[in-house]
Amino acid sequence: MTDNSRLIVALDLKVPDKAMELAREIHREIFAIKINWPLLMVAGVGIIRELSSYGRVICDLKIADIPNTNSLITSNVKENGGWGIITHAFTGSDSLAAVIEAAGEMKVFAVVSMSHPGSDQFINSVSMDLLEMAMKEKISGVIAPGNDLVMLRRIRNAGKGLMILSPGIGVQGGNPADAIRNGSDYVIAGRSIYNSEDPLGEVRRINSAVSSVIHRSS
Amino acid sequence: MTDNSRLIVALDLKVPDKAMELAREIHREIFAIKINWPLLMVAGVGIIRELSSYGRVICDLKIADIPNTNSLITSNVKENGGWGIITHAFTGSDSLAAVIEAAGEMKVFAVVSMSHPGSDQFINSVSMDLLEMAMKEKISGVIAPGNDLVMLRRIRNAGKGLMILSPGIGVQGGNPADAIRNGSDYVIAGRSIYNSEDPLGEVRRINSAVSSVIHRSS
């Protein structure tokens, strides 16, 4: 994987062989791979280690349990070679602290905002409080929507020094260049890549859209 | 397993053989077994099917993702023979509806309140709203703390017709008889059973404490 890319690819696939094949094809030109529970349930946690042979793997587990359970889940990801883990913050500071402690060197990203319609019922009404709490716990970064630029900018402004990862790119309407311009450090795209006839071409298209913004602003 | 028991045993173990052995020992005298991610990560989801040979298995996954991911997680549990699944509600009605739809005949229980200290920062301040939303989505039941009888009674009163499962029994301070008297339908105990020298004896002790309450009130 490469530090020159700001793209994290969500391998939201249920077929382990397809996930491995896609990783092999695109890993040299992306920043990281993100996987979630449905793949882990089918493949077993060993796939974290297999995918790690290609570089950074972020486990998007949206952990939301009591501190002890959060700690056990995180330790398991760490033992299997994960580079990063995504947890909820909604379950409070002790639950979040348990993830961060068990993670050690592994990066921990907190969900403080989501972008499906139901997010507005509960989680998005406390996004700024979740962010503030997560920063007190010394989180590595947060998840902020790439398709809601108002929310993204609020989180960018309040979250000085945090790494911001933004889903909602591609099929969900977000534009990678706009997300980066509005505060994302890394954009997360899934379907637009793994459902493409030419995944590597799509990766390059996103990388190039992002590069033009970064070079203009630096 | 038996309908005569109101006890759900949390097998929060990381060693699959120990979980299977304990299930074999106690399954005839309990209502259901509850398992969570740390065991599934080590054992693989196939353990849901193995444990199901002893009866009802509730997967306590505290699902908290977007609708599509929630649906995939739930389908996987269903395909492996789960009897019930535990999901969060704070990710909103569409995420919850996705679990309920994918669950089919499987029971779905929503977390509307938790009992670790951090719960009071976010989730417990919206417990009644979560409950109301979950009832609109036709949830089977909810999780309500067996060691916070005030919250338990509020949830019991507002949650007419819902099955209430209560953790926090035993090591976490809750008393099974008090929980049942205050509205729980089933109590969940873990450590007090699996860390006991005599797990079956502990199961019988809880069953008997619960029975005396039920017989007195009926």
TrEMBL record, chains A, B:
Domain Orotidine 5'-phosphate decarboxylase: 6-206
Matching SUPFAM superfamilies: Ribulose-phoshate binding barrel
EC number(s) reported in the record: 4.1.1.23
GO cellular component terms listed in the entry, alphabetical order: cytosol
One GO-annotated biological process of the protein: 'de novo' pyrimidine nucleobase biosynthetic process
Protein's UniProt keywords contain Repeat: no
Entry annotation: catalytic residues: D60, K62, D65
Short name of one Pfam family: OMPdecase
InterPro entries xref list: Aldolase_TIM, OMPdecase, OMPdecase_arc, OMPdeCOase_dom, RibuloseP-bd_barrel
Keywords: Decarboxylase, Lyase, Pyrimidine biosynthesis
Residues reported to bind substrate: 12, 34, 60-69, 115, 167-177, 190-191
GO molecular function per UniProt: orotidine-5'-phosphate decarboxylase activity
Pathway per the UniProt entry: Pyrimidine metabolism; UMP biosynthesis via de novo pathway; UMP from orotate: step 2/2
Catalytic activity of the protein: orotidine 5'-phosphate + H(+) = UMP + CO2
Matching HAMAP family: OMPdecase_type1_A
Subunit relationships: Homodimer.
Family as reported in the entry's similarity comment: Belongs to the OMP decarboxylase family. Type 1 subfamily.
Function: Catalyzes the decarboxylation of orotidine 5'-monophosphate (OMP) to uridine 5'-monophosphate (UMP).
NCBIfam families: PRK13813.1, pyrF
Protein name: Orotidine 5'-phosphate decarboxylase
Organism: Oxyplasma meridianum
